[in-house]
């Protein structure tokens, strides 16, 4: 296939990023997948080019941050981060730096996973950080910018997140009760997010913020095309 693309993934060792990586490996539209991470991914596929780095120092290797599309699946939890400063460095600093490098290097498509309720004016630190990150990304005016705001992400993670595990069980029982305007609060599977990201990268979908229920609709469109 001519004109095959190079994708960049941040967060490929995480739940959604790992699923996305496997899907891009299978997708013939992609010739190379650059993975920037602090540890190896599980796959050794020849499409993958790994860069093991401290992601807090991403700009030091800015010259290598080149490709056609960036998929930023980075995220942590307040319980996993040692303090609010570290949490902000991950959830704000890394995506903001990646967006700046994308703009500098002429990358025309940038996608980032944010969170439902993101709001730069929120009194809640988590929501405020996500909202400020979204603003920092949008400031660069990358031609195709997609900010995905999923609700609680289902699936099994490698690391233990006890509170999240309990909440997922509650949501699994209560999802069917969320109807009408409340449907967007239903939990979402990471595969749906990955499917939506691939569809967005290969369509003429309008740039902007995409809420959880819309992510699911886009993911269904992607599956129906296959």
Tell me the count of domains.
1
CATH uppermost class: Alpha Beta
The spatial strand order of the largest sheet comes to: 3-2-1-4-5-6-7
Determine Rg (CA atoms, Å). 17 Å
Q: Low-confidence parts, pLDDT < 50 over ≥5 residues?
A: none
How would you characterize this protein structure?
The protein is α/β, with parallel strands linked by helices. It has a single domain, classed as NAD(P)-binding Rossmann-like Domain (Rossmann fold, 3-Layer(aba) Sandwich). 38% of the residues lie in helices and 17% in strands. It has six helices and seven strands. It has a seven-stranded parallel beta sheet with strand order 3-2-1-4-5-6-7, sandwiched between helices. β4 (69-72), α2 and β5 form a beta-alpha-beta unit. The longest helix has 21 residues, at 84-104. It is globular. The mean pLDDT is 88.
In a few lines, what is going on in this structure?
With 226 residues, the chain is an alpha/beta fold.
Features:
7-stranded parallel sheet; 226 residues; 6 helices; Rossmann fold; single chain; 7 strands
Which helices and strands occur, and which strands form pairs?
Blueprint: E1 5-10, H1 15-26, E2 30-37, E3 48-52, E4 69-72, H2 84-104, E5 109-113, H3 125-138, E6 144-149, H4 162-174, H5 190-201, E7 208-211, H6 212-225
Parallel strand pairs: 1-2, 1-4, 2-3, 4-5, 5-6, 6-7
Helix pairs in contact: 1-5, 2-3, 5-6
């Amino acid at each position: 296939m001519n004109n095959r693309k190079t994708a960049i993934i941040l967060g490929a060792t995480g739940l959604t990023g790992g699923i996305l990586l496997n899907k891009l490996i299978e997708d013939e539209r992609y010739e190379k997948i650059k993975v920037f991470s602090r540890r190896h991914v599980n796959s050794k596929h020849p499409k993958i080019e790994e860069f093991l780095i401290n992601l807090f120092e991403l700009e030091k290797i800015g010259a290598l941050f080149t490709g056609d599309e960036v998929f930023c699946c980075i995220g942590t939890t307040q319980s996993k981060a040692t303090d609010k400063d570290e949490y902000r460095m991950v959830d704000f600093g890394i995506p903001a730096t990646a967006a700046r490098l994308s703009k500098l290097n002429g990358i025309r498509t940038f996608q980032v996973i944010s969170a439902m309720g993101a709001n730069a004016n929120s009194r809640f630190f988590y929501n405020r950080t996500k909202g400020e990150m979204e603003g920092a990304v949008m400031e660069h005016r990358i031609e195709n910018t997609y900010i995905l705001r999923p609700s609680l992400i289902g699936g099994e993670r490698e690391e233990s997140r006890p509170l999240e595990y309990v909440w997922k069980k509650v949501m699994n029982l209560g999802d069917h009760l969320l109807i009408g305007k409340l449907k967007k609060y239903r939990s979402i599977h990471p595969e749906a997010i990955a499917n939506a990201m691939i569809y967005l990268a290969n369509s003429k979908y309008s740039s902007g913020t995409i809420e959880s229920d819309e992510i699911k609709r886009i993911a269904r469109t992607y599956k129906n095309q296959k």
